[in-house]
Specification:
Layout: E1 2-3, E2 30-32, E3 35-37, H1 51-67, H2 77-82, E4 88-92, H3 98-106, E5 111-116, E6 129-133, E7 146-152, H4 161-170, E8 172-189, H5 194-198, H6 200-216, H7 226-233, E9 236-247, H8 254-282, H9 287-301, E10 308-318, E11 330-331
Parallel strand pairs: 4-5, 4-7, 5-6, 7-8, 9-11
Antiparallel strand pairs: 1-6, 2-3, 8-10, 9-10
């Protein structure tokens, strides 16, 4: 576990965790295809960690708030807090740290830990928030469990979701919650058939992304399977919410138009973020062709008269209290 250097002097660190200075190799970033990538466990995560990607991640955060009418969660977190049971929270794959900081501001009595492969988070954060550089696919070594674990847009980054969710379960307090938010990037559609008939370049992009995910073992098409995986990991009261996410400038209603605007901004920025490394490293596509695939997909996303949509999944589950029987029912 690599703690950020500005916190080293004030935070206790378990002796089982390896600690590095920010002057070490974790900030000796890799540069490829004109983008910057993480150096800690280099190559494991296909997306860049540069300014463009940070802006995209913050847009994704804004979209989540739009779907949830400003809330940071769907789980009964406020009830946990009011009963004194919200002491520790984990933001797994924290990215820019924006969710962790806002959650820490809302719940100042909760210790919030944000974890990522890249140390790109701000240094000025709420006093109850800290960030750590770590690989979530390694053994989890935290000494104390979490009352709430938040996970967002990690599809394509995790090789074994059953193992990952088992780790989440093992490190959640009885009665605590784990929540997933994922965008189903490979199941794109339109209600009127315009995407299916006019967006062949974007369909080709998605097919390559799907293929690369299968070859690396880090699939992008698992969103519909997450509720079942949560149950198999032992969680109960598994709840599912699905939101249709329009892409483009075509919706007429104000709220849908705002969601669609930010969605297409995120998707257009994400084309090269997701595609360049995977297409060149995994599929052997040349750089110019990879950029061409992304550019043609971008034109399809912005094409007038094409009403493209995808689905945003939100899945939450509770670890049973000690002695509580399992609950096989699932809502959603």
């Amino acid at each position: 576990m690599v703690h950020l250097v500005h916190l080293l002097s004030s935070l206790p660190i378990s002796p089982s965790h390896s600690v590095f200075s920010l002057t070490s190799s974790i900030t000796d970033y890799t540069y490829e295809n004109g983008r910057r990538y993480h150096s800690y466990r280099a190559g494991k995560y296909a997306l860049p960690n540069d300014t463009l990607e940070a802006e995209r991640l913050d847009i994704v955060h804004h979209l989540s708030l739009l779907f949830l009418s400003g809330d940071l969660y769907t789980s009964p977190v406020r009830q946990l807090a009011s009963s004194g049971r919200l002491r520790r929270a984990l933001d797994a794959g924290t990215g820019t740290g924006i969710w962790a900081m806002e959650f820490g501001h809302e719940f100042p009595g909760c210790e919030v830990v944000g974890v990522d492969l890249s140390p790109i988070q701000p240094t000025h954060v709420p006093p109850n928030v800290r960030f750590e550089v770590d690989d979530l696919e390694d053994e989890w070594l935290w000494d104390a469990p979490f009352d709430y674990i938040h996970i967002r847009t990690l599809l394509g980054s995790i090789a074994s979701w059953p193992t990952f969710l088992s780790n989440c379960y093992a490190h959640t307090t009885p009665g605590g919650y784990v929540e997933l938010q994922e965008i189903d990037l490979t199941n794109v559609f339109s209600a009127d058939g315009t995407y299916e008939s006019h967006a062949h370049a974007y369909q080709h992009y998605n097919s390559l992304l799907f293929q690369a995910g299968h070859l690396t073992g880090r699939r992008f098409d698992l969103a519909p399977e997450l509720p079942r995986m949560m149950q198999e990991a032992g969680f109960v009261d598994v709840k599912v919410q699905r939101f249709t996410q329009p892409l483009g400038h075509w919706p007429r209603r104000k709220r849908e138009r705002e969601i669609a605007f930010w969605s297409v901004e995120s998707m257009v920025s994400g084309l090269e973020a997701y595609g360049l490394a995977l297409f060149t490293r995994v599929l052997g596509v040349g750089m110019e062709e990879a950029r061409g695939v992304c550019e043609r997909a971008r034109r399809d996303l912005l094409r007038e008269g094409v009403h493209t949509c995808c689905t945003w999944w939100m899945v939450s589950g509770r670890r049973p209290e000690e002695g509580e029987g399992g609950d096989e029912e699932m809502d959603g």
